[in-house]
Design a protein that fits this description.
Elements lengths: L4 E5 L5 E6 H9 L3 E7 L9 E7 L14 H7 L16 E5 L14 E5 H7 L4 H4 L14 H4 L14
Parallel strand pairs: 1-4
Antiparallel strand pairs: 1-2, 3-4, 5-6
């Protein structure tokens, strides 16, 4: 298996990102980072590819955030329609504005919920009071970890103690 990703830690050993392995290799080679863990398999024989690196001088104040889009709203709501409670596939869910757009409802984490097509069609441009159903959970901006931010990337076992 050829290594693909490197876990990047700041100078205080907090995870701040996942980068392509070649960028991690360049950071170690140029002296900007120190190798903590390595992959011992790769395209070049007898070369250790960085699995975990720590930056030498940079300390991050960066907080992970994700945008309020359909993919992330459905993930936050765990593929569950917030009106009927049904669990659906991604393609069968939509985003619903709790306060409709025509009444000034914005696309924010606290105003958007996952809704099945049927419930969204029934609610239409109605307010929660007119529709007669409140969302099952109060929508809020999710607090995320690096594992959730990079949820589509498989995390190697040797990253576990750094996360």
């Amino acid at each position: 298996m050829t290594p693909t990703y490197t876990l990047k830690l700041d100078a205080s050993y907090r995870p701040i990102g996942v980068i392509p392995v070649h960028k991690g290799f360049n950071m170690v080679y140029s002296g900007r980072a120190k190798l903590l863990e390595g992959y011992h398999t790769g395209p070049t024989f007898n070369t250790v590819y960085p699995s975990v690196i720590v930056l030498k001088t940079y300390v991050s104040k960066y907080r992970l955030t994700i945008s309020c889009n359909r993919r992330n709203v459905i993930w936050r709501d765990q593929n569950t329609c917030q009106y009927c409670g049904g669990v659906f596939s991604f393609k069968d869910l939509t985003m619903d504005h709790i306060v409709p757009k025509y009444l000034g409802g914005e696309r924010t984490w606290t105003n958007i919920v996952a809704s099945c097509k049927r419930c969204n069609g029934r609610k239409g441009h109605k307010t929660i009071q007119e529709f007669g159903k409140k969302p099952l959970t109060t929508p809020k901006k999710p607090a995320i970890t690096i594992r959730e931010y990079y949820r589509d990337i498989p995390f190697p076992e040797n990253w576990e103690r750094y996360i």
